[in-house]
Amino acid sequence: MAFEEVVILAMRRKYREYLQKTSTVWPKTSTISPVKKILKVDDWFHPDGFPISVERRDPQEQFEPHAHEFTELVIVTGGKCLHVTGNDSWELTAGDVFVISGAREHEYRSLIDLRLINILYQPQQLKLRLIDLPSVAGYHALFTLEPARITRQSTKKRLHLQGKELAQVLDMVERLESELLAREPGFGFMATATFMQIIATLSRCYGRSPSPNSKALLRIGEALSHLEQNIHRAVDQQELANIAHMSQRSFLRVFQSAVGTSPLAWVIEQRIQRACSLLRSTDKQITEIAYEVGFNDSNYFTRQFTKSTSLSPRNYRMRRGLTSGHALVREP
Prior knowledge:
Blueprint: H1 3-22, E1 37-39, H2 41-44, E2 52-57, E3 66-68, E4 71-85, E5 88-93, E6 96-100, E7 107-121, H3 137-148, E8 159-160, H4 163-182, H5 187-207, H6 212-229, H7 237-243, H8 248-259, H9 263-281, H10 286-292, H11 298-309, H12 313-320
Parallel strand pairs: 1-3
Antiparallel strand pairs: 2-7, 4-5, 4-6, 4-7, 6-8
Helix pairs in contact: 3-5, 3-6, 4-5, 7-8, 9-12
């Protein structure tokens, strides 16, 4: 084994020992109802502020119910448990993958040699564009719809990696972890690129999942992908229903349940987000931005923008100033 590999392995062991010592463990025999615990960014990310962190739990100890100030991508590598979130629960086994949004409280019960890899990330701090990833239905299913957990059905496990797929993802996680531990010059770029590989690979795997639950959510994911690729077009609800292989009435009901809003409201919000980015990063005229993001009436754009952000486009630009970059993964 090369000297560099020995050093990295030693760093990993020390890092994991530190995490195990500093983790808060919820007593197994406690009969007191736990107060909601919020895991803070400052406690779980490196002091340099980089918005990605990897936490291994081998094994996972029993831990009190908690939520996060960040988003958590969880990969189950061994054992099993009962995953509890709100009034819902389901069994986790090796190969299961899911995403927990910050405000969503959860915990693990009935642990049997449970082993996890948690990839923690701060969506609003990541500054690379998604490019064509939103065209992948599995991306929307795993990173947009599942974390929202609007309905009970949406909490059931859907992505389960088979042996080859799991090995591929774990190899990428190893590379991500190595970059984060070594923190050599350029580690931020390398770690972000590897993280995006993980996101894209999991999105593709979701699309190949044979689970009936996956197929159901993928239909809505396909509709979201279509909306993303045609964000400037008027919303055609019948066309979306056809894409999802549903009647228009069923589609609107399922979409509202899964996404929490109507297709038109979702499109308007996406247009507003794009307008916010352009207002921060360019000096284009507000009317020009309105047309660029899909609004045909600048006055209507201003009303919708103000309704969404509580600021007019002009005031938003003045307060936010000019910055560069775009969010890498949207907050679910």
